[in-house]
Amino acid sequence: MVIGIDMGASSVKLCGLQGEHIVFTHYENGGETNVPALADRLGIRFEKAETVALTGLSARKSGLEGRGIPLKYIPEPDAIGAGAVWLSGRDNAIISSIGTGTAFVLARNGVYKHLCGTGVGGGTLRGLAQRMFGISDMTEFGNLAASGNADAVDLLIGDFIKGDYGILDPELTASNLARLNDAATDADWAAGITNMVLQTIGTMSMLACHGHGASCILITGAVAGTPLSQVNFEKFTSIYGTEFIIPAHSECATVIGAARLALWN
């Protein structure tokens, strides 16, 4: 079995692969996680692995060096691309990997190119949730946002133009958080903040997709599989015709990609 570890800025992801089969995945909040202690808690035996694949910003701080464990370091853009492509069954794609920030990778014919990134991502939501609502638990914040209505705080195209305007759908956001609405609730503001982050990522993804002639956009990362993310990117697909796909295991797509590259290379 190949074990993968993705050590990001604010979380650690693990997976186990046996050939083409995903044996396990695990997502742990906290970028400073003690990996050997985490493995002991989960009952994972690194020394029994064929290879341990490491990727992410903190990959060389795993604490596994010098223990006789076979380690392979996988460049993060390669891991992002390989995981998303394998899980989705698609190629010639832009992968938008939503972590603390968001990275954009072009995957084409087994080659993975990092295009650019943005500081807007899950960390943005975490910071705003803490500052505006005093919420540090992102599941709690996600539930609050899901119960709100972003239209209560966002201005839409339809607010300015009545009837058919041709190229612009009246449900498109004209300006995030710009509706001066005293009746908006905390839930509405949470929904609006989440909408702003996801729309920023969606718009950048589309620009990358069209600029590089890709056929679709693959969304990965912990935020990708949340209900508001699914609704947001389904709306992008519906309005613009560009296919947005959230693959299974999206929160662990990068670590799965690292393990696959270690397995086959």
Continuous helix count: 7
Q: Number of folding domains?
A: 2
The helix content is 25-40%
Query: Could you please say which CATH topology of the largest domain applies here?
Result: Nucleotidyltransferase, domain 5
Tell me what portion of residues adopts beta-strand conformation.
15-25%
Order of helices and strands: EEEHEEHEEEHHEEHEHEH
> Which of globular, elongated, flat, extended, rod-shaped describes the shape?
globular
CATH superfamily of the largest domain: ATPase, nucleotide binding domain
Biggest sheet overview: 5 strands, mixed
Task: Name the strands of the widest sheet in spatial order.
Answer: 3-2-1-4-5
Low-confidence stretches: none
Rounded Rg:
20 Å
Mean pLDDT reading: 93
Structural class: alpha/beta
| CATH architecture designation of the largest domain | 2-Layer Sandwich
CATH class of the largest domain: Alpha Beta
Q: Span from first to last CA?
A: 14 Å
Describe this structure in words.
By secondary structure, this protein is of the alpha/beta class. The protein has two domains: 2-76 and 253-264, 2-Layer Sandwich (Nucleotidyltransferase, domain 5), CATH 3.30.420.40; 90-148 and 184-246, Nucleotidyltransferase, domain 5 (2-Layer Sandwich). 35% of the residues lie in helices and 25% in strands. The protein is built from seven helices and twelve strands. The strands form three sheets. A five-stranded mixed sheet has the order 3-2-1-4-5, covered by helices on one side. The chain has a five-stranded mixed sheet with strand order 8-7-6-11-12, with helices on both faces. The protein has a two-stranded antiparallel ribbon with strand order 9-10. A hairpin with a 2-residue loop joins strand 2 and strand 3 (21-29). The radius of gyration is 20 Å and the shape is globular. The chain starts with a strand and ends with a helix. The mean pLDDT is 93.
